[in-house]
Write a structure and sequence with these properties.
This protein has 166 residues and is an alpha/beta fold. It has helices at 26-35, 57-74, 91-106, 125-138; strands spanning 10-14, 20-25, 39-44, 51-55, 80-86, 110-116, 143-152, 155-162. It folds into 2 domains: 3-74, Ubiquitin-like (UB roll); 80-162, 2-Layer Sandwich (Translation Initiation Factor IF3). The protein is 35% helix and 33% strand. The longest helix has 18 residues, at 57-74. The radius of gyration is 30 Å and the shape is rod-shaped.
Length: 166
């Protein structure tokens, strides 16, 4: 709340340069802010009496928005990449998909590994589990297992997350 929006008889006032001015009546505090061509901003409305500060509110809002924009720019969005295997995957195909998996993990993305069982392959789900566990062991230095292999319908799914570089 700023200026006339504040509904208190007395406020604890902080000056424009940060010094404490003590408990002052609201009208007097508002007059001091207007004399300095600044705004009276309520910074702690729940305190008794409320704490108000004399500052340039427009400049304050601009600085806040700049900080928020900078924080948004620096955050990394983690994507979930999916790599599909088959239970009867050949060695070269396996190595190619493993390389892609490691590349995704190094980029900081999570990887969802799935084995799709077709026809009667579902009776040998242990073969699919071995394929997923082999991927996990061969890429162990780049990842941690976030979700162990689990059969869901005709697919077995496992999720790997990148190791945090500390």
């Amino acid at each position: 709340m700023i200026n006339d929006e504040i509904r208190a008889k007395e406020v604890r006032l902080i000056g424009a340069d940060g010094e404490q001015l003590g408990i002052i009546g609201f009208r007097e505090a508002l007059q001091m802010a207007q004399d300095a061509n600044l705004d009276l901003v309520n910074v702690a409305p729940t305190a008794k009496p409320p704490v108000c500060r004399i500052m340039d509110y427009g400049k304050f809002r601009y600085e806040q928005q700049k900080k928020e924009k900078e924080a948004r720019k620096n955050q990394k969005v983690v994507e979930l990449k999916e790599i599909r295997f088959s239970a009867t995957i050949d060695e070269h195909d396996f190595q190619t998909k493993l390389r892609n998996c490691i590349k995704f993990l190094q980029d900081g993305d999570k990887v969802k590994l799935s084995v799709r069982f077709r026809g009667r392959e579902i009776a040998h789900a242990d073969i699919g589990r071995r394929v997923l566990e082999r991927v996990a062991t061969e890429s162990a230095e780049h990842c941690i297992v976030e979700r162990v292999p689990k059969l869901e319908g005709r697919s077995m799914i496992m999720i790997l997350a990148p190791k945090q570089s500390s």
